[in-house]
Amino acid sequence: MDPLFVLLVGIVIVFVGILYFKLHAFFTLTLAAMAVAALSAPELISGYWMGEGKSAAEAASLASSPFGLRVATAFGFTCGKIGIVICMASIIGKCLLDSGAALRIVRAILKVLGEKRAPAAMGTSGFFLGIPVFFDTVFYLLIPLAKALAASTKKNYGLYVLAIIAGGSIAHSQIPPTPGPLFVAEQLGIDIGMMMISGVIVGGIAAISGMVYAKWINKRKPIPFRDLEEGGDEKMQKWDDITDRELPNLWLSMTPIILPLILLSGKTIITGIVGSTSLTLPAAISSIVSLLGDKNVALTMGASVGLFTLFQTKGGGQIAVKGAVLSALSSGGIVLIITCAGGAFGGMLQQSGIRGVVEQIDVAGGMWFLPMAFVLTAMIRTVQGSATVAMITSVGILGPVAAPEILGFHPIYLAMVIGFGSKPVPWMNDSGFWVISKMSGMTEGETLTNFSVMATIMAVIGLIVSMIASNVLPLN
């Protein structure tokens, strides 16, 4: 069957399932993957596997296997690549919250920057915590502090809220180990350390543009301070009563985040230096770098420090540690199965023969291909609401042309653009839209004017910076 028709069927199932029938993303993506697998022509599937280096006999055997088995295999393959990372990131985030380490980090940033720079402190805190902690959780974490600041200063409530969103939402779409950028990096064959470094740099520039808009809109249409809604998290309302003595020390609080970042980016930097020079690392050192720079090992070490921090805090102990792991795996497991289902969907799309169709497009130079990838991802995000699903779907379609020799630049720029494309346009079909609206007290109109517009501005700035960088530093 024609690959474009198969692609259309898969996308329609995803959109209709999520939007109309309100089905869970895991079920919808799995259903779409099975439909694509069932409709794909055996000769195209065989051609895909031969392109992956399989012999004609092996490719024919894989093409003739039941479509359910092919979907399950792709699901398991994705889980093998990112499963441990997502689970360990969930444990790190939970430990930061339960131990008080996250509060210690935020207070330290506020202390360094001061109350006059409180918006920058909120944005920095959101960006920093958004690396291991999912955006919704970051917002839940920081909104009480934004309210406390607004109650103290009697102004800038909307600015504080938008600052949190600017930092946290960009980290969510650009920096692993959050599922979207992690999945995109794996699909495009990008080193996770490089993805983290690039996400911090380009994502930071985009976040700054969001802060500029936040200050502008705050002066023209300031949002009055609104108290926390009834039924909010009582623990977070009482954070003002927690003294620094009850919190872990700053370095221990930061280690679960910084340690994996250093290990992963360190491997990338060392490998890059060795590859570009005549240096040769001793075998023992090379083995250590490879071991500690492995994403699974690095995140496991970060999670271990996080659990130790929780164990050491007042009221911690074995019960708290066990409860944190169970809670983290419950929430992280849902994210994991959705992401793996997306991997199966993307894998079936690639086997459908869509690679041959996309490769017919001349993408040399990349100056128009990156905006095309941005618009595609943004359309998917706007229609169905989920940034992660948009990134998964988009990279499944665009992945076949991600090789540097075809693009004309390093795939890292495509990965960043897909991440930025997942930002616009958040509206009423996005769960994050309602989290922000209800927790901050903003009306739907205020949320659209503030959050949705700011997200779109950050996305466009990120696209422009990525396009410029792809020409100035193609890295291929």
Describe the structure.
78% of the residues lie in helices and 0% in strands. The chain is an all-alpha fold and 476 residues long. The chain has one domain (3-472). The protein starts with a helix and ends with a helix.
Key features?
globular, 476 residues, single chain, mainly alpha
In short:
This protein is mainly α and about 475 residues long.
The SS-based structural class is mainly alpha
How many structural domains does the protein architecture include? Answer: 1
Report the mean per-residue pLDDT as an integer: 84
Main beta-sheet annotation = none
Order of helices and strands: HHHHHHHHHHHHHHHHHHHHHH
Total DSSP helices: 22
Rounded Rg:
22 Å
- Give the percentage of residues in beta strands: under 5%
Portion of residues within helices: over 70%
**Spans with pLDDT under 50 lasting ≥5 residues?**
228-237
Give the SSE map.
Blueprint: H1 3-20, H2 25-39, H3 42-51, H4 56-64, H5 67-99, H6 101-113, H7 118-129, H8 135-153, H9 157-174, H10 179-187, H11 192-220, H12 234-237, H13 250-276, H14 283-292, H15 295-312, H16 317-359, H17 369-384, H18 387-398, H19 404-407, H20 411-421, H21 431-440, H22 444-472
Helix pairs in contact: 1-2, 1-16, 2-5, 2-16, 3-4, 3-16, 5-10, 5-15, 5-16, 6-7, 6-13, 7-8, 7-9, 8-9, 8-21, 9-11, 9-22, 10-16, 10-18, 10-20, 11-13, 11-22, 13-15, 15-16, 16-18, 17-18, 17-20, 18-20, 20-22, 21-22
